[in-house]
Amino acid sequence: MIEFSRVSKAFRTKRSSKVILDNVSFVVPKGRNLAILGRNGAGKSTLIRLIAGAEKPSSGVIRRSGAISFPMALSSFFISGLSARQNVIFASRVYGYAPHEVMEYVEDFCEIGAYFDMPIKTFSSGMRARLAFGLSLAFRFDTYLIDEVTAVGDAAFRQKAQSALDKRIREANVILVSHNNDVLRDSCDCGLVLDSGAAVLYDDIETAIQAYTEIVQSNGHY
């Protein structure tokens, strides 16, 4: 279960502050796969980081139960001066896994060749996302946090990523950010729609997609 209780989140700008969440409360029950929908800038990635604990709320309380992954596209998880291999070894020890087993899986999954032994700071954003996705799947979590990462790479890699995601969904739960409604329908059974600081939880994915579509139509852009 994941519970937000009167949570607010704002970022300061030079002249004012940008409110992402404004006194939001909702509960994601155990055993549900949640889609997060919202226009660009609505706070989808921020919400993922809040759930992971990578960001702290400005106010309010976030309660979590079970093992929750780091966001699969969160590049700040990595130590940029170390290689992908060294980062995998570090993460494996943090999560209590044998490094050589994790290494074999991640190196095969990412398909980044010689870059696996180069510093993360030399990686493109796509390569970082591949590495984060592969590393997340190498560990067993109760809930996986996924932020558009299945859109990374060529068609063959996207298919591979989606297949791996589908397998994990059969064993665990996901919280997924995507602009692809077909991906959301395939992977999720409920949805959280973000708009102007508000967050509304819908028990049915189709109802959530419809609510989001109406917001987009009324504003004229994603």
Write up what this structure looks like.
This protein is of the alpha/beta class and 222 residues long. The chain has a domain at 1-69 and 145-153 and 175-222: P-loop containing nucleotide triphosphate hydrolases (Rossmann fold, 3-Layer(aba) Sandwich), CATH 3.40.50. The chain is built from seven helices and eight strands. It has helices at residues 44-52, 84-95, 99-110, 125-138, 155-171, 181-187, 205-219, and strands at 2-12, 17-28, 34-38, 59-64, 143-147, 173-177, 190-195, 198-202. The model has no long low-confidence stretch (mean pLDDT 89).
Named CATH topology of the domain at 1-69 and 145-153 and 175-222: Rossmann fold
Q: What's the rounded overall pLDDT mean?
A: 89
pLDDT under 50 segments (min length 5)?
Answer: none
Tell me the quaternary state.
single chain
Secondary structure class reads alpha/beta
- The CATH C-level name of the domain at 1-69 and 145-153 and 175-222 is Alpha Beta
Find the CATH superfamily of the domain at 1-69 and 145-153 and 175-222.
P-loop containing nucleotide triphosphate hydrolases
Helix content: 25-40%
**Tally of separate helices:** 7
Q: Using the 3D structure, state the CATH architecture of the domain at 1-69 and 145-153 and 175-222.
A: 3-Layer(aba) Sandwich
Largest sheet: 5 strands, mixed
| Topology order in helix (H) and strand (E) letters | EEEHEHHHEHEHEEH
Main sheet: which strands, in order across? 5-6-3-7-8
Which term fits the overall shape? Answer: globular
How much of the residues is beta strand, in percent?
15-25%
User: What is the CA-CA span between the terminal residues?
Assistant: 29 Å
Let me know the number of strands.
8
Q: Rg from C-alpha positions?
A: 18 Å
